[in-house]
Write a structure and sequence with these properties.
This protein has 204 residues and is an alpha+beta fold. It contains six helices and seven strands. Strands 1, 2, 3, 4, 5, 6 and 7 form a seven-stranded antiparallel β-sheet that branches. A hairpin with a 2-residue loop joins strand 5 and strand 6. The N terminus and C terminus are likely disordered. It comes from Haemophilus parainfluenzae HK2019. InterPro entries: Chalcone_isomerase. Keywords: Signal.
Length: 204
Amino acid sequence: MKKTMKLKFIIAAISALFSTALFAQWQPVGNAEYTWGPFHVYTVGLYSETGSYEKNERPLMFSIKYEKPVEGKNFAIALTKEMESQNLSKDDTTAWLKKMQEIFPDFSPNDILNFVALADKGYFVLNDTVLDHEFDQKFTQAFIDVWLSDKSSFIKLQPQLLGKEKPAHDSKEFQHQPASEPFDEENTMPELPPNYDFKQDTKG
């Protein structure tokens, strides 16, 4: 009961900030596939109110549609490593990692993780559920920079993500659908991106 009431409060608070109309006015800018070897791990899409992107524009929304099972804790590690490459404070990135690992579940195929970026804060929404934490402006900018900065590891994805090249998928594919198969720990695919050093976890 308390969790239900808390979720309703969070949704009401976000609705007050955005207005109901804002939720209905997201326009696709572009999207791009992230692959690891032969595997299509996820597709990330960028949305704005206008359907175009200008630097420092807010609000923005990033939508990550998973094609393979991805462990939430490892996804958080990978995002944090990308943020650390931006020369941010270690205290900040350590705190962000802890919080993301607390709120991220394991992701299954067809799950959609949205990040809504406002001028001074940001929120994650998984499918139709608001995840229970409000991130500050510094995190919000760091998350945007993971995908869009000149130093991003995803620089090759940016032309599609910014709508300068033909999108990899129709934006309708980012509408929430139930997972087509359950998360299977024995069939977990590589978790994330170019900067993640898999060798560091190897013992011996």
